[in-house]
Design goal:
Elements: E1 4-5, E2 9-10, E3 22-23, E4 26-30, E5 33-35, E6 38-39, E7 43-44, E8 51-52, E9 55-59, E10 63-65, E11 68-69, E12 73-74, E13 80-81, E14 84-88, E15 91-93, E16 96-97, E17 101-103, E18 107-108, E19 111-115, E20 123-125, E21 128-129, E22 133-136, E23 143-144, E24 147-150, E25 155-157, E26 160-162, E27 166-169, E28 172-173, E29 186-188, H1 193-199, E30 208-209, H2 213-216, E31 220-221
Parallel strand pairs: 1-6, 2-7, 3-8, 4-9, 5-10, 6-11, 7-12, 8-13, 9-14, 10-15, 11-16, 12-17, 13-18, 14-19, 15-20, 16-21, 17-22, 18-23, 19-24, 20-25, 21-26, 22-27, 26-29
Antiparallel strand pairs: 27-28, 30-31
Length: 227
């Protein structure tokens, strides 16, 4: 709770917790809560299959809420997510990612993949993909604005993505499918962010400072400032 990680991450290092994936905050987490946290560094994986802005691999009831990542996530292999790499039985709510995402296939603005873990439902809800670009570099590679792959029973609920995002597969532009409950989320503009954040139930009184959208293009946290 109220944590932050800064600085670029390379190879198999992580911002705070070392493990096999590369991420701005933690390589792998399970049975944990990430609340009002952020990561600012770029995550570059040299040989792992997962790179992510905040958490690389999550399992068993991990909850990420009211948090964000602004660094890029990239790997020459598969699976990269702006916020989360691969989530199993994990939940993400009221979060955003604002860094570029790139990998061979499985590129998602917020998450690379989300699946259930038995009775534990994987869900990504009320969140925003503010990434400038999401790219699958391989020909025919999978890239989506919100989540690249969704397992049976896992849920995407009321997510949005900027219309200005450049979405590509093998260097070819991909046309997203607008659907707030789908892999690409609902397209929107930066001018609509303040109203949408409020409509999504984000706490703009004591948690999220939306005044920074005018200068940074994104909200920040009142009680966990970047400076």
């Amino acid at each position: 709770v109220l944590c932050q990680a800064r600085g670029n991450i390379n190879g198999t290092e992580t911002g705070l917790i070392a493990n096999v994936s590369t991420a701005g905050f933690a390589g792998t987490l399970a049975y944990a809560l990430i609340d009002r946290c952020f990561a600012t560094g770029n995550s570059v994986s040299a040989g792992d299959d997962v790179a992510a802005g905040l958490v690389g691999l999550s399992t068993h009831r991990l909850l990420i809420r009211d948090s964000y990542a602004i660094g890029s996530a990239s790997t020459p292999n598969n699976n990269a997510g702006g916020l989360l790499g691969s989530g199993t039985g994990s939940n993400v709510e009221r979060c955003y990612a604002a860094g570029a995402v790139s990998c061979r296939s499985g590129a998602g603005g917020l998450a690379s993949s989300l699946v259930n873990d038995g009775a534990e439902i994987g869900m990504l809800a009320m969140s925003f993909a503010l990434n400038p670009s999401v790219a699958a570099t391989a020909a025919g590679g999978i890239a989506h604005r919100v989540c690249a792959a969704l397992g049976s029973g896992a849920q995407l609920v009321s997510n949005y993505a900027l219309n200005t995002m450049v979405l590509t597969s093998g260097g070819i532009p991909v046309t997203p499918v607008d659907n707030p409950n789908g892999l690409d989320g609902q397209g929107t503009t930066q001018n609509n962010l303040v109203a949408l954040i409020a409509a999504q139930g984000w706490n703009t009184a004591t948690v999220w400072d939306t005044s920074t959208i005018a200068t940074l293009g994104r909200p920040t946290l009142f009680d966990n400032p970047e400076n």
